[in-house]
Amino acid sequence: MAHTPFAYNLAHLIGATVLMMGFGLLYQRRMTAVIRTYALQAMALALAAAWQAAIQDAPHLYATALIILLFKGMAVPAALQWLVRRLGIHRTVETALGIGPTLMAGVGLVALSIVLVMPMDIAATAITRESVALAMSVVLLGLLMMITRRNAVTQVVGFMSLENGLLLAAVGAHGMPLVVELSIAFSVLVAMALFGIFFFRIRERFDSLELSYLETSRGDSQ
Amino acid sequence: MTALSAILPGPLPLLLALPLLGAALLAVLPGWRLAAWLNVGFSAATFAAALWLALAPPPPGLFLFIDDFSAALILLTGLVGFSTALFSAAYINRDGKNHRLAPRHLRLYHAMYQAFMFTLLLALSANNIGILWVAVEGATLTTVLMVSLYRTKPAIEAAWKYFILCSVGIGLALFGTILVYLAAQTVMGDGSPAMAFSLMTPHAAAFQPELLNLAFVFLLVGYGTKAGLVPLHAWLPDAHAEGPTPISAVLSGLLLNVAFYVLLRYKRLLAGNPHTLEPGPLLVGLGVLSVLVAAFMLYRRGDIKRLFAYSSIEHMGLLAVAFGTGGALANFAGLLHMLMHSLVKSAIFFVVGLASQAAGSQRIADIRGLTTSAPLLGWSLVVGVLSIAGLPPLGVFTSEFLLLNALMHRTPWLGLTLLTLLLLAFAALVLRLQGLAFGPPSPLPGRDGTKPPRLFTRVIGISPIFLHMALAVAAGIILPAATASWLWAIAKQLG
Amino acid sequence: MIPLLWGILHTLLVVAAAPWATGLTRRVKARLQGRRGASCWQPYRDLWRLLQKDSVIADSASWLFHITPYVVFVAVWLAATILPTLTTDMIMTPAADLIALVALLGVARFFTALAGLDAGTAFGGLGASREMFIASLGEPAMLMVTFSLSVLAHTTSPAHLVEFVLAGHVGLEVSVGLAMGALLMVALAESGRIPIDNPATHLELTMVHEAMVLEYSGRHLALMEAAAMMRQLLFLSLIICLFLPWGIARPGDAAPWLLVGLAAWIAKVAALSVVLAAYESWIAKMRLFRIADFLGGALLLALLATIFLYVSEAL
Fold first, then answer.
1. Fewer beta carbons within 10 Å, N or C terminal of chain C?
2. How many CA atoms lie within 13 A of B386 on its CB side?
3. What gap in Å lies between CA B159 and CA C175, rounded to an integer?
């Protein structure tokens, strides 16, 4: 039994919340619910960043937290909801693998990341280990979502949840320079703009966001 | 020189500022004819800055630094960037004239071309692993925009696939980057020094080996996606085939190199720690797999650009085998191969671009008997394909020979496997070449109703091909002693 | 002597307070839906009225149908007494055990399902099959939560768990958070509350528990209803004593502390009932096949709790 200080425990609890939301993303069946869950995950992440800012005494992380909250927690979900409404795809999420098996695979991935991270001995900040395991789980769950959900929007949400995992790792890494966080926030912006353009074009041309429609043109043009 | 450095801020800032300035300028400039030439101008100036940089490398900084390896690749990037810009001026002109591309798309294209060059040069000169990551991500974003330029259904599919796969790869690479920082931070304390290659390498022995191992796996998957190594290569043929040809040339000739360069940087970091896993076998495994898959995929291609895209995968596989094997000789072979492949492959794409533009199709079946219908293009293609297939005495042969030589000494079975696969790929390429270059020519009408290009444009379009071919052939026949010893020194540094 | 006294008091308390908690939930829910709702004491009157009525029994029913209400009532009552409410210093404390609690609830469920089948009506069988479907997922999740908590505290006795938590041995553990999430989900399912089952409806498409007890009437029905109310109180108590145990008196505390414990317990039960009512008004009932995902999620949370427990143990 470890009698770990309150600060680290709370950080882990918030990290676990982010992870739970990752599972929530896999669990949801409706598009709007998926986007809402994503927003909750981003908010939990913002909380994690703010808490890290407090315990690391790193004020720049407050800025990160604010960016996450405003951008990923509010603007992106709102944009996605708008997109979903506009494209009329608010119905069921199409899955390549059932919800149950996906969740099971998710637990497997969490176990995997723990097995990988636990033997390490990150000496100066022993507690970082657990947050690395959490972050890695979130990353892998995002990857899993990208693989098992067929729809382009859910794939994008999976990608962004993967990015949430990256941010969780970045804010947990003690004293990591700001460069990376700002660039991530920026890249999300760019990525989102790109995605938006893509949606429109794909929508215009194929009447569906499903990637399997696109696959008909795969391979060589015969 | 002193007068020059009084006015200019130094080669490195210049090298990075020029393409950035170019991107900004070309993004607002409306006329596409002028933009094409400005693009050439900026690329030429960048190349000049790269030359200057190679002659007078600046001292390493916290965020940027130049060593021999990066200087060599910067030089190569400057050169291929310049000649591709030249080719693009001739090539894209025609797309603009026959309204295949709208003026605003051309503006986007030129701005993104310069932005892309900026990200490549930034990646090559970055010391900070965060900046390095941002640069590679930037390269993804800019090329996605260029691949989707034609706005056709396959182009959008290709760009989407490219974007999704590489974004995931880039994401995983960032996780690896964070893990490397964590490993460094425990030893070197908080802040930027724990993210700088030049400062981390001396301390690498004290890093947590398990953490470095985990980080390297993520980095290998992440940047390996960008390098087009086999289980992660799915984006590469599509992106090459559907984008404008100059982009295919720089994707193959430059972007893949840069992704590889990043992997090698991390490999060297790992080599500083005796307790980490050997990255070599991983790289060799992926490399052999890439060569295997690509060699077989070469046989059933119907699209000419896809054909050469698979050939790029094959050569990336060879690089992985070379650098994974390690040792001065294999590294030397790998370096030489990197340079030769960039030159020859981009030249081939130039030829293919001109040929398919003339034929109005990218299908191999539609392009026949080029040596008769367009002798200059046809024979360039013959030389290029024979060269990339590894026929002596051309440049690629030398590097492949050296690599096999190194392998035969270390792991003969691997050498033999690789030799078999290379012969397989050789046969596939020659088989295709026969139809493309010889036999009865398919008619090449100016199908799009535009006049055939003027002589000046034709010369501009074809001169980069000759430049690249001449360099590759020269390197194959007689590699200058100075170049060889320079490469040898880099190969030794790579360990 | 004193523990015996408290034990008896506690045993009476759980059976006496159960209808009140249910009544409170119903009342809050009614208010949230814009109705005035019946008083909190209405369930007592209902039960009293039912107890005075004769029981009508189907011709096809066997002896099983007769004994089931008594078995169920006793099993649930016993299970409810396992959990400490006002004090951990009771006569039953050494024998009480979370696994026994799960087993007793299992017995009650088993008999309820059998009785549902026994009368041979369509609804009874339907309810029984649904109940078993839910139980097959809910019970493992519940056990998994129990396991992870007992690994944490090195005990399966709820009273000792309470003492362990009160002694401050548990901080904000990730695994405790996960286990709480899992337990909340299981509690909703097991006490037949809204996203899983709707206690206020007799709609054949949705009812689960109500379908099984449809054939009961009179005093038998009163027992079954009382058992259901007690089960809901039991889960509230379980959440309280595992995650919000503050206020419960410990051995050695003076008698006034028991009053504090009682007051705290009543306040907590009331608060949780209100939360439950609010949650039920807010959420929609789930399709039956979605329940597998819901309880699968609970099982998964519990599994993760166990995994993370080993992580923090290794730390």
1. N
2. 15
3. 43
Burial of residue A189 (CB within 10 Å: 0-12, 13-18, 19+) is middle
Chains C and B touch, contact meaning at least 3 pairs of CB atoms under 8 angstroms apart: no
Q: What share of chain A is helix, strand, coil (3-state, %, to 5)?
A: 80, 5, 20
Is the CB of residue C180 less than 8 Å away from at least one CB of chain A? no
Task: Give first-to-last CA distance, chain A, whole Å.
Answer: 65
Question: Is residue B180 packed enough to be buried (19+ CB in 10 Å), middle (13-18) or exposed (0-12)?
Answer: buried
- Sort residue A220 into left (φ over 0), alpha (ψ -120 to 50) or beta: beta
Q: What is the pLDDT of residue C67?
A: 92
* Omega of the bond leading into B393 within 30 degrees of 0 (cis): yes
Per-residue pLDDT tens over the stretch B51-63: 988 888 888 888 8
Residues B2-54 have pLDDT tens digits of 555 555 677 888 888 889 888 888 888 888 788 888 899 999 999 999 998 88
Total number of residues shown for chain A: 222
The residue of chain B nearest to residue A157, with distances taken between CA atoms, is B164
pLDDT digits over C64-104, tens only? 999 999 999 999 999 988 888 877 777 777 778 888 899 99
The domain total for chain A is 1
Q: How far apart are CA C234 and CA C225, in angstroms?
A: 14
Q: In this complex, do C297 and A2 lie within 8 Å of one another by their Cβ atoms?
A: no
Distance of CA B70 to the CA centre of its chain: 14
Q: Tell me what the mean pLDDT of segment A135-164 comes to.
A: 85
The reply to whether residue C172 touches residue A9, judged by beta carbons under 8 angstroms, is yes
CA C51 to chain centre: 23
Residue B329 lies in a domain: yes
**Residue B382 belongs to domain spanning:** 281-444+454-495
C293 in contact with A, Cβ within 8 Å: yes
CB contact under 8 A, A100 and C169: no
The residue-averaged pLDDT of B218-241 equals 89
Chain A: list its partners (3+ Cβ pairs within 8 Å).
B, C
Q: Is the pLDDT of residue A126 over 60?
A: no
pLDDT tens string A173-205: 777 775 455 556 556 555 655 565 555 555 433
Share of chain B above pLDDT 70, in %: 96
Residue A216, in any domain of the structure: no
- Tell me the residue type at C270: A
Number of domains in chain B: 1
A125–B186: do the CB atoms touch at under 8 Å? yes
Q: Which residues touch B136 (CB under 8 Å, ≥6 apart)?
A: B119, B123, B170, B173, B223, B226, B258, B259, B262
pLDDT band with cut points at 50, 70 and 90 for residue C301:
confident
- At B116, list the tokens: 């892309």
Answer yes or no: is B463 within a domain.
Answer: yes
DSSP secondary structure code for residue B390 in this structure? T
The neighbours of chain B, by the rule of 3 or more Cβ pairs under 8 Å, are A
In this prediction, residue B16 carries a pLDDT of: 87
Neighbours of B279 (CB within 10 A): 25
Q: Does some domain include residue A221?
A: no
* C258 residue type, one letter: L
Rounded distance, CA A179 to CA B309, Å? 35
Closest CA of chain C from A165, distance in Å: 17
Whether residue A216 is predicted with pLDDT greater than 50 in this model: the reply is: no
At C97, give phi and psi (nearest 5°): -160, 140
* Contact between chains at C172 and A114 (C-beta distance less than 8 A): no
Q: Which residue of A has its CA nearest to B175?
A: A166
The Cα of C176 is separated from the nearest Cα of chain A by a number of Å equal to 9
Nearest to B141 by CA among B234, B265, B23: B23
| Of the partner residues C169, C181, C290, the one whose CB lies closest to the CB of residue A1 | C169
- Residue A218 domain flag: no
Neighbours of B360 (CB within 10 A): 13
